[in-house]
Amino acid sequence: MKKLLNTLYVTTQGSYLSKDGECIVVRSEDGSKKKFPVHVLDGVVCFGNVLCSPFLLGHCADSGLAVSFLTENGRFLAEVKGPQSGNVLLRREQYRRADDPVQTSAMARSFLIGKTVNSRTVLRRGLRDHGDRIDSGRLEKAALELDSYAKRLSSPLVLEEARGLEGRAANVYFNVFDELILKNDGEFTFTGRNRRPPLDKVNCLLSFVYTLLAHDVRSALEAAGLDPQVGFLHRDRPGRPGLALDVMEEFRSFMADRIVLTLINRGEVSSKGFSVKESGAVLMNDDTRRTVLQAWQKRKSDIVLHPYIKEKIPLGIAFHVQAKLLARCLRNDLDGYPPFFWK
Amino acid sequence: MSELLPISALQHYLFCPRQCALIHVEKVWVENRFTVEGRIMHRRVDSEQRGRRAGADQDLSVPLKSERLGLYGIADVVEMVPGPDGREIPYPVEYKRGSPKILDWDRVQLCAQAICLEEMLGLFVPEGAIFYGKPRRRDVVVFDDKLKLLVKETAMELHKMIAEARTPPPVKDKKCRSCSLAGECMPGLGNAKVESYLLSALKE
Ligand code: SF4
Question: What span, in angstroms and rounded, lies between the C-alpha atoms of A297 and A286?
Answer without folding.
Answer: 16
